[in-house]
Write a structure and sequence with these properties.
The protein is an alpha+beta fold. The protein has eight helices and 33 strands. The strands form eight sheets. An eight-stranded parallel beta sheet has the order 28-27-26-25-24-33-30-29, with helices on one face. A six-stranded antiparallel beta sheet has the order 4-3-5-11-8-9, with no helix packed on it. The longest helix is centred in the middle third of the chain and has 18 residues. The protein is globular, with a radius of gyration of 24 Å.
Amino acid sequence: MRDECPRPDMIHSSGYLSLNGPWEFAFGEECPGFPGGELHRTIEVPFAPECDLSGIGDRKGFHDYFLYRKDIDVALKEGYVHRLTFMGVDFSAEVYVNGRKAYEHTGGAVAFSFLLDPYLKNGRNEIALRAYDPPREKDVPRGKQYWKEESEIIWYTRTSGIYRSVYLETLPADHVVFLSANGSFLKKSVDLRIEKTKGDLPLELSVCGDNGEIYAETLQIEDEYGDKTLDLRDLPLKPWTPETPNLYRLRVRYGEDEVETRLGFRDVAAEDGKVLLNGRPYFQKLALDQGYYPGGNLTAPAKEDFLRDIILAKQMGFNGVRVHQKTPDPWFLHYADEVGFLVWCESPSCFEYSKRGFRALEEQWPAIVRECFGHPSVVAYTPNNESWGIDGISKNREELDAAERLYRKIKQIDPTRLVVSNDGWENPVTDLVGIHDYSDPTPEKYLPFLQRLSSKENMVVNPPNADRPIFAPGRADLAKPFLLTEYGGISYNADKSDKTWGYGKQEDQAGFIERYRKTQEAVASSPYLAGYCYTQLYDVEQEINGLLTFERKPKAPLETLRKINEMVSK
């Protein structure tokens, strides 16, 4: 059972109670009287009903509503409150406490919390949740979740209802609701963001390194939301990089409540066609990470699975990943900070444009940024991919304006990171130009691939996808850094199972290695690329484009792949 604290970088001294484990469950049509009525099934939270680890494993059924119920024991105590958090419910949720509707939330990519106390009684309490996740509606942000019965090509099994951890905190009435800290190495400063209960109690801060406390300050913030910049220019701070992932501890005491998080000092910027890390050009060697796991789909069976994936990627010579069409789990970011690993944070896209669908995407991004802000590993945000959900961006002014509005919104919330507005093609206003080119290294495709990689002008004039220009109309900017953010996709089925799909088929390991080598040699030849993102880190279900199998077994010796990746050094 996933019973660890779901937010490892925001732990209260008072602890938490995991509510993962068995819940009563039913599909919506099985209990029309909900929140009353019997739920005849049992599900293992936080696993979605479509995956095996949930104990349900219903992959073929199409259901709109998903019903959950669990009893919890609560000992009410004067001066304390109870906060319930759902880390992820796809796509919208209504929560009932002892039969009364207590909260509503929309947005499957982000967590939500609320205080239970107006609905609680001392002793046994009933928590019930109804999730709504229409499986066939394409204007709902769904990422790689397929709208047909069986997964195929690049589309995977659906994930509905609760798919991330649920937990309960008993907190002092005056407490920190959320804490996040983003450190700058060049400025020697910390941008601190605090959400707390309203009051005039002082906030006592301390920053600790390996040898103890290096900074302390007392703040007075009366409102619920407080932003504060700490000036640490007089301190001998160490930078955070993938090679030197130096971290500090930040503690905040607010009355009887104490919260601890971690802090890294690093800066990311785009300048003169390069990506800068701490003021110096840094070539990004990323792999595409779909975030799917055997048995759990979008939910890792154990938090250690995140660390395993990061370590395997680093052993192959990558310094980061683009987490694709899902938001990264807080434990993934925790390990990325700790080990030294760059992360591009994405969100699930819609597949058809509607004002409703884009609004649902847009409304989640402040919460996505909120979760990522304190992680030095996160260097870029990718709100849109390959014009999914904004397919008319080059012809429809409304869709272009929507994409640019979302870019500006994210930059306003977090100006310290880069935003890739529409990764793949038809880039509107953007910090980085992400390009997708799945040219197979065969003679008829390899030479045009090399030609496009020889100059930005060639890439723009002869884009890899003829009907999809690199830039949206009137938005061309060759001064921006160009990155090859999806390419390769060489399919090699090491397990020889049936019903597989890939971009370029390879029958044996030797051929797979040689094909990968030739592809990376082409990337290494480019004089202008500021980084790449290879498709992909591991296979997912029927898609066998990974360097690892779905079970994370290497398809080639890790050291061999590492040496090939080391050729691409800028």
